[in-house]
Amino acid sequence: MDRLRVLHTGDVHLGARFTGLGVRRREQRRKLVETFGKVIDLAINAGVHLFLIAGDLFDSNQPAPELVNVVMGGFDRLERHAIEVCLVPGTHDRYSEASVYRRMEFADRANLHVFTRGELTPLELPSLRTTVWGRALIGSQKGDILAGLRRGNSSEWHIALVHGSLRVPGVVEEDEAMIDTASLGASGMDYVALGHWHSLADYSRWGTPAFYCGAPEPLSVRDRDAGFVILAEFPAGGRPEIKPIRVSRRRADILHVNMDEIADGHELRKRIQALADENLMLDVVLRGLTPHHLLLDPIELEEDLSPFFFHLRIKDLSSLSVEHLGRLRLPESTLSGCFVRLAQAKIAESQAEERKLLEEALKVGLAYLSRSDAG
Ligand SMILES: [Mn+2]
Fold this sequence. Notes:
The chain has helices spanning 25-45, 65-80, 181-186, 265-273, 298-305, 322-328, 335-348, 352-373, and strands at 3-9, 50-53, 84-87, 112-114, 121-125, 130-134, 157-163, 165-166, 178-179, 191-195, 201-202, 210-212, 228-235, 241-246, 251-258, 277-287, 309-316. By secondary structure, it is an alpha/beta fold. A six-stranded mixed β-sheet has the order 4-3-2-1-13-14, with helices on one face. A six-stranded mixed β-sheet has the order 5-6-7-10-12-11, with no helix packed on it. Manganese (II) ion (MN) binds at residues 11, 13, 56, 90, 92, 196.
């Protein structure tokens, strides 16, 4: 064996509820299982020696028995191709008393290695001339979870497998498990397989390749760069080849629209429709000040455009202030003008919660009225 081939996945979140996906959530839960199967196929077809799971394989420690069976089926197939599996528990499937990894299905599997200790522990795989360093997440971890890690001389290849947040000064300072880039860079590992962040990301430092593989299917609209696994090949003494491979069916994105820049409802509709994709889960966030002629019903727009997407949600955070409405000077003779005047009087004498509700009612009501005024 003159080169080591590795597949790195993690944050699969099998069993995720996808509550944000409304009626599509069941479908996406099934897709997740299917995509996990695809990742197993990919590992087999690519002839990898080692299959790494960097935490959060399951979305919780109480997955349905069918999901555990799906995973066992996948591990069986890997075993038939003599592929070793290394797994660390993550934040969602942490190694607690109630850990899914204490179920008997996970015990005594020749090709499966679950890291269950709270400190970095080396696992020697002599047949692969490889040492994998892993640690489980147990309770809350203090300090840097890669502190002191150094490669030894025991193996040709050294790989670290951990679940945690990289410390990015000013951006990410605190999380359940933190990793310092300095200790990552100084570790001398051939590869650091990271899990926890759901988007694919390269955090290689000082010649140490380090990657978040991201979730194989996006879990929310924030997971814009999710949908990959990493195939890595390490020639003895040579430069590694690291390739992200897209495996997801769905994509995720957020479209921010500044309403100040939108001429009318038609233009907004066109902007959203330009992204039409039956596999895209999209949030559209409306901000800015909505001019009067733009008053529209986000719920109706969402209903109209939803068929063009896997899932579409329009969040109206545009700030149509009561003061702004006052400046609109709607003619008193129109229904809208009359409605605004009455609503404003009510708002003026309301407080806190009630005020918020009335302002919302004013916006929605005006949206309807302005359509009927326009004929
Ligand atoms: Mn995760």
